[in-house]
Amino acid sequence: MTLESDPSGLADDGPLNTVDALVQLSFLIHRIVSAAGGEHDLSVIQIRLLGILRDRQAGMVELGRDLGLDKSSMTGLVGRAQKRGLVERTPSPYDGRAVLVTLTPGGRRLAERCADEIGRRVTALTEGLSDGQRIRLTELAASLVSAPADVSGQAG
Amino acid sequence: MTLESDPSGLADDGPLNTVDALVQLSFLIHRIVSAAGGEHDLSVIQIRLLGILRDRQAGMVELGRDLGLDKSSMTGLVGRAQKRGLVERTPSPYDGRAVLVTLTPGGRRLAERCADEIGRRVTALTEGLSDGQRIRLTELAASLVSAPADVSGQAG
DNA sequence: TATTGTTATACTCTATAACTATA
DNA sequence: TATAGTTATAGAGTATAACAATA
């Protein structure tokens, strides 16, 4: 049963179950974020990188932990962003081994424009909902996001 | 403000707005699907490919349309799945140019095991919800998924 | 002419292993 | 010894352009 993208409507007849509905919604929003980023030549992972750096500077290992990537993957990711002038590497004043990755002014502007674009498109997606529905959806989504988040798959 | 992954909780103090909640939920479920697929050495895009083929066979262009990929990208994607024995290419009886991609029995078994794994993990994510909350969430998510889905970003 | 599919090419993204430099 | 980061390498995934075969 489903788990497919099915962009043009439901191939199925019956209503979606919880798992399918959440997975398909996740794919849909992922596509929206990807398309919004594409307007600024940003991939989803680059958007997430800039999003983290909007709030704080961080080292490579820490960024990798937040993004779920190996430190060696971070080298290329940050390097490409740096080559575009979006971020800078500065030596850490506390640790001679570490670098601090920070957003440049241009990187910050781009991150903001991109976030705005994502906001417009996701807001458009929820336009058909009533205020009450939107509030309930937000509360439910937020509660899942901030839940203990045991993604290990082990029984619990 | 956010749009980051923030796996360990909310760096923010206030409650999430609708856009951030949906985007973060999307990333969370994407991670869950990716981790579940990883148990079977399947990427998210391979999972989606097999998911489509569970319901029907299809040509390369049609698959690319459903997955949002160029036909040239499909060649490699299907080729790797075929090399693993998960799918087969058969010549279309109606169109000499076209091939029909179909799931092998082994591919179908793997797709089912993977879907089960995803089901377990997403279900675990929603374990903290009451039955009523889960029903409302499912209805709201399903309504967004089956909405007109204007992802273009143009004003509407 | 239009469509289906592949190939050639180039790039992003990712991990593993080995390495340097610092702690 | 342990940690931060880079490099080398290999592979998946993706798009563009050019191509062959069929419609």
Describe the protein's architecture and organization.
2 copies of one chain form a homodimer. The first copy, chain A, is mainly alpha-helical and 156 residues long. The first copy, chain A, has one domain (18-128): Winged helix-like DNA-binding domain superfamily/Winged helix DNA-binding domain (Arc Repressor Mutant, subunit A, Orthogonal Bundle), CATH 1.10.10.10. Chain A is 58% helix and 6% strand. Chain A contains 6 helices and 2 strands, in the order H-H-H-H-E-E-H-H. A two-stranded antiparallel ribbon of chain A has the order 1-2. The radius of gyration of chain A is 19 Å and the shape is elongated. In chain A, 37% of the residues are buried. Residues 1-12 of chain A have low confidence and may be disordered. At the A-B interface, helix 1, helix 2, helix 5 and helix 6 of A face helix 1, helix 2, helix 5 and helix 6 of B. The structure holds a DNA duplex (23 and 23 nucleotides). Chains A, B: InterPro entries: HTH_MarR-typ (IPR000835), MarR/SlyA-like (IPR039422), WH-like_DNA-bd_sf (IPR036388), WH_DNA-bd_sf (IPR036390). Chains A, B: This is MarR family transcriptional regulator.
Range of helix content of chain A: 55-70%
At CATH level 3, the topology of chain A is: Arc Repressor Mutant, subunit A
Number of helices of chain A: 6
Globally, the shape of chain A reads: elongated
Rg calc of chain A? 19 Å
Helix/sheet category of chain A: mainly alpha
Major sheet summary line of chain A? 2 strands, antiparallel
- Looking at the overall shape, the CATH architecture of chain A is Orthogonal Bundle
Unreliable runs of chain A: 1-12
- Estimate nothing, just give the exact number of structural domains of chain A: 1
Strand order of the largest sheet of chain A: 1-2
Indicate the proportion of strand residues of chain A. Answer: 5-15%
Organism (chains A, B): Streptomyces laculatispora
InterPro entries (chains A, B): HTH_MarR-typ (IPR000835), MarR/SlyA-like (IPR039422), WH-like_DNA-bd_sf (IPR036388), WH_DNA-bd_sf (IPR036390)
Domain HTH marR-type (chains A, B): 15-146
Protein name (chains A, B): MarR family transcriptional regulator
